[in-house]
Amino acid sequence: MHHHRPLLTLATAMFAIGTDSFVIAGILPDAAHSLDVPLGTASWLLTAYALTYALLGPVMAALTTQWPRRTLFLTGFTLFTTGNLLTAYVPLFPLALAARALAGLGGAMITPAAVAAATALAPPERRGRAIATVMTGLSAATALGSPLGTALAGLTHNWRTTMLFVTALGLLAAAGTALYLPTLPTPPTIPLRTRLTPLTDHRIGLTLLTTLLAYTGLYTVYSFIGPALDRATHDNGTTLAALLFAWGLAATAGTLASGPLTDRYGSRRIINTALTLAAVNFALLPWTSAHLPTTLAALTLWGLCGWGLLAPQTHRLITTLPTAAPLLTGLASAAVYVGVAIAPVAGQAGLTRLGPHWLGPVGATLITLALVTAEAAHTAIHRKETETQ
Questions:
Q1: DSSP readout, 182-232?
Q2: Cβ proximity of 139 and 255 under 8 Å
Q3: C-beta separation of 315 from 269 below 8 A
Q4: 118: closest CA among 107, 127, 110?
Q5: pLDDT tens digit string along 159-216?
Q6: What domains can you pick out in the chain, each with its CATH number?
Q7: Between helices 44-63 and 93-121, what is the axis angle to 10°?
Q8: I need a labelling partner for 117 at 20 to 30 A (CA). Which of 3, 52, 240, 286 fits?
């Protein structure tokens, strides 16, 4: 039981970082109004964070490999909280963009290190569970952090309060890290070229492509969740918030359950089941999203499958190349965030051509492609194992 407290601390860190990623969508109109930019331009606040976070995660994992883990976490949290604090107070949009990028850089330092630390804290047979515990912080952020932050902005009539709330979460996680994280061995030094070789390994490439396609598909609908579900919610914000809360709870349950399931059944079965159910669910959205009970069922299945994919995908990466675990976890979260950043573009194309109620099948097409690449990855991994035996 000795590693439970550090794992919970790491999950808290992921909760803060995840909340920061998802909370902006809910307060975007207010931020746009206050910073005096159009809504479309304001959405760059989302992209500035997501892209910095995605692209610098692998780079920071490589650059900070020799840092003591605690120093690395506390530096990351300093950048993260400073970025959010600045976002809460800067009056000009370009400064707010820079502040969001700074927060993203902090997140990029913490995430790969947090998942690698969870892997180091757990014995091999419980590794899937440990990764899932830390990743639950991310999905709990969608369930609780995001609606809470959005509600705070509504109650105080000020989106900047939400940024202060995220700053406080970051400080809390930093304090927990300083108090409870044991001294972990510094990972061995790996030259940058060696760190980037995983990208040339097609087993890794295909697994990352699966994540990218799946999350682009899943977030195609999420980016325009209000108009997509307007028939069920009758444009009532409270009904939408309640639906998103249910979605977030299902996401948390999916993440938690996926760890032990991956340890028991292996990653392939969990990945293929999650992707198949998600694709069917999205294909049916034009009909299911017309009524409240069926919308609730669709969102629950979406949360379970969408977030139940993270742990087995990370597990597949780490078991394929165990020596590159910190780099791979950085690449894994990068793939998710690049998907989240591309999704609005795919969604916008579907929106203009087909209308908001037909975004589900657009997402389903991408998720089906993800299923194809997942099987291709499995075949490549299996072939390599046969060769080396």
A1: PPPPPPPP--HHHHHGGGG-HHHHHHHHHHHHHHHHHHHHHTTHHHHTHHH
A2: yes
A3: no
A4: 127
A5: 899 899 999 999 999 998 888 877 777 666 666 666 667 778 889 999 999 999 999 9
A6: 1-189 (1.20.1250.20), 197-389 (1.20.1250.20)
A7: 40
A8: 52
